[in-house]
Amino acid sequence: MTTIRDVAKHANVSVATVSRVLNKNGYVNEETKQKVLEVIKSLNYKPNAVARSLYKKSSKTLGLILPDITNPFFPELAKAVEDVANRSGYTLLFYNSEEQVEKEQIYIENLKQKYIDGVILATNSLNKQQVEGLEIPIVVVDRAINKNIPTVITKNYEGGKLATKYLKEIGCRVIAHIKGPDRNINAEQRFKGYIEEVSNEPWFHEELIIHGNYNMRTATEVTKKLLNKFPEIDGIFAGNDVMAVGAIKAAHQLGRKIPDDLSIIGFDGIALGEMTIPELTTIAQPIYRMGELATHILINLIEGKAIKQTYYELDIQLIKRESTKRA
Amino acid sequence: MTTIRDVAKHANVSVATVSRVLNKNGYVNEETKQKVLEVIKSLNYKPNAVARSLYKKSSKTLGLILPDITNPFFPELAKAVEDVANRSGYTLLFYNSEEQVEKEQIYIENLKQKYIDGVILATNSLNKQQVEGLEIPIVVVDRAINKNIPTVITKNYEGGKLATKYLKEIGCRVIAHIKGPDRNINAEQRFKGYIEEVSNEPWFHEELIIHGNYNMRTATEVTKKLLNKFPEIDGIFAGNDVMAVGAIKAAHQLGRKIPDDLSIIGFDGIALGEMTIPELTTIAQPIYRMGELATHILINLIEGKAIKQTYYELDIQLIKRESTKRA
DNA sequence: TTGAAAGCGCTAACAC
DNA sequence: GTGTTAGCGCTTTCAA
Description:
2 copies of one chain form a homodimer.
Chain A: H1 4-11, H2 15-23, H3 30-43, H4 49-56, E1 61-66, H5 73-87, E2 91-96, H6 101-113, E3 118-121, H7 128-132, E4 138-141, E5 151-154, H8 156-169, E6 175-179, H9 185-198, E7 209-211, H10 216-229, E8 235-238, H11 241-253, E9 263-268, E10 281-284, H12 287-302, E11 311-314, E12 317-319
Parallel strand pairs in A: 1-2, 1-3, 3-4, 4-5, 5-11, 6-7, 6-8, 8-9, 9-10
Antiparallel strand pairs in A: 10-12
Helix pairs in contact in A: 1-2, 1-3, 5-12, 8-9, 10-11
The structure holds a DNA duplex.
């Protein structure tokens, strides 16, 4: 391995000078500079990032903590984060927390020991105190913890309302909801949006709300039971796209025609929604934009740049496809 | 930040002693040890990983370079890699190369500068020389480069044969193939397996082979053209599941009934295959197992442990679901 | 404009 | 058993 010492020796200068040309700071004579640059090239020297980190107490690395990389929403997000991080010269440490608090806490200890510069976190498990105790810049994404913590989410409540209202508009008379995990704040918001729209309806009752755990297989099972018990249901708002797909499967297995007998709307706007038959009507979040924005904010925070705003609730968008009736 | 010096001072010992209890090596009196442990706890001291890396020239970190995290095959793989790495005390640096050689090369330089201990690589772009020039333990996964490089792949050729043979068995008379990217070695192998089974068939001609680029939308388009041109096609082997889903969509749009008019088989065994209607018959790779095995091999390589074998071609498995006729 | 040297926090060889 | 110290490769202060 060739070090800064080797370069210095070959160029007949001190390591300080080499360091100066490496970091483009301090005075260094044009000629010496050229010489050093030459030697660097000929020796194919690359500065050691670890040594630099030790001194600088910074590693040009971001941590990305995701609850489940297997849920298609998160790879789309991760791609955006990676894109922006890389373009800004940061690398990405990736953690899959599987929604386990203990894992998250271990990860975070790990991050601190490595002089990681900042963290992008999607979690329900950590609370405000825990996050603020981190002493590391952090941006929370997808699942808000607290308004004082930099955050990028979307209008989940409005989205839930919009989805439900749309089902009403196209003529659905009994609308059920497949809810995500209780402890998940965005599932809760989407659910509240639904409630807002249906609680005064004469047909509404609590049993129209079922729990699908943001997971296809569970959603299929519970939807089948639901449709068997209440065949009058003609609209389903699923808390995410994956569960909506599960609901489509359930309907199909029971011989219910979509969208003629039953309209289904999801939430997320993941690519999967265009792969199903019928294609999925959904409330789309700007997933790439979320990752991009979160990473920008984080990097600005790290680099001490001015930031106008650190709490974002991005707009969602109704995408009409084939799983819902025409209005 | 509290350092080893602080601990030493508070415990009235030298840093060497603290280091000894930290690393559980060298002699240290039980009492002193307890004292040190106490101080560590009371100060909430965590050793600095960067300083340790600098000395050890190792960072307990693995690099994971994937071509496209957005392709559902890779998150499933990444999950396995992350699981095993974490369980063995390694963290994971994640790179999304988007199939670009330049990006991969930048990433790899990066890795070396950070004392990354090893790399898991899924790529077509790098050749044998480039990989061997790395001077870092590496395991290639999903896409073989060379038999001398540690590798975990599956029997792509056999899989291609098996898929095609199965379509013949269930009575398909004209079988098309949607091929993955030309430069992708696994796409090539699957294609060869297909060819082996069909090249002597009287109905076979070159135009039954179309290019779908491992991508759903492209696959839908080309399949529609194909089916319009050759309506006699009653079986399609798609080079991966995502393209198979694209083919299902195409068939659906053209009003072809699956599996009655047309049987479709994919390759990969990703979770998506169970989400579609009809559910996808496929040649399943043991995706989790691939990631797990690759990571184990890599860690053994890094830690200098004995390894019986470094080139694995895992078995694939035919999973019969609804997109193909019954035999 | 350049160099010597201290120091980032840790490990390990060597001395006692 | 324990301490002293050099050194991992780099940056930056200070002096020249």
